[in-house]
Write a structure and sequence with these properties.
By secondary structure, the chain is mainly α. It has helices spanning 24-51, 58-75, 78-86, 94-127, 132-135, 138-165, 181-185; strands at 11-14, 91-93, 173-174. Putative odorant or sperm cell receptor. GO terms for molecular function: G protein-coupled receptor activity; olfactory receptor activity.
Length: 186
């Protein structure tokens, strides 16, 4: 039977940029600007790919998936970072940390698999142009996208659960700006 993790009742302190308190406001503004640009840019790609009939191709289908993935990925950690930079509280609940770790791992893995799928799409377009329409039919593209998402979230469930089964020493400080496996294991 597994032992109860001693930090499960509390919180973690995300040290992040706390060594440079005089830079926290500047970092907050810069990171917020880049976060908003990321949101607007990715939403623009998704909306444009959806509205323009000329862009209803496998390449733009996968690019829209990648843009949505990027929206989710940045949103899984940046808002917590902004909260920690803005105020004196630098904490995240144990549950919040578990959820953040799960989504960061899931979305990161999904991105890797989706990039492999996108490279296969480009390979088929360049090296098999006469067979491209048959190889990359809409049903197969949707299947590849679903497989990317499912594999990312399944792998993350295993990886994050193994990370939180490791007994913690009671030390609640995480020397990072979000919940990441190496920082939590230290």
């Amino acid at each position: 039977m597994m032992g109860k993790n001693t930090s499960s009742e509390g919180y973690f302190v995300l040290l992040g940029f706390s060594n440079w308190p005089h830079l926290e406001v500047v970092l907050f503004v810069v990171i917020l600007m880049f976060y908003l640009m990321t949101l607007v840019g990715n939403l623009f790609i998704i909306i444009l790919s959806y509205l323009d009939a000329h862009l209803h191709t496998p390449m733009y289908f996968f690019l829209s998936n990648l843009s949505f993935l990027d929206l989710c990925y940045t949103t899984s950690s940046i808002p917590q970072l902004l909260v920690n930079l803005w105020g004196p509280e630098k904490t995240i609940s144990y549950t919040g940390c578990m959820i953040q770790l799960y989504f960061v791992l899931a979305l990161g893995t999904t991105e890797c698999v989706l990039l492999v799928v996108m490279s296969y799409d480009r390979y088929a377009a360049v090296c098999r142009p006469l067979h491209y329409a048959v190889l990359m039919n809409p049903r197969f593209c949707h299947l590849l996208a679903v497989a990317s998402w499912v594999s990312g979230f399944t792998t993350s469930a295993l990886h994050s659960s193994f990370t939180f089964w490791v007994p913690l020493c009671g030390h609640r400080q995480v020397d990072h700006f979000f919940c990441e496996v190496p920082a939590l294991l230290r």
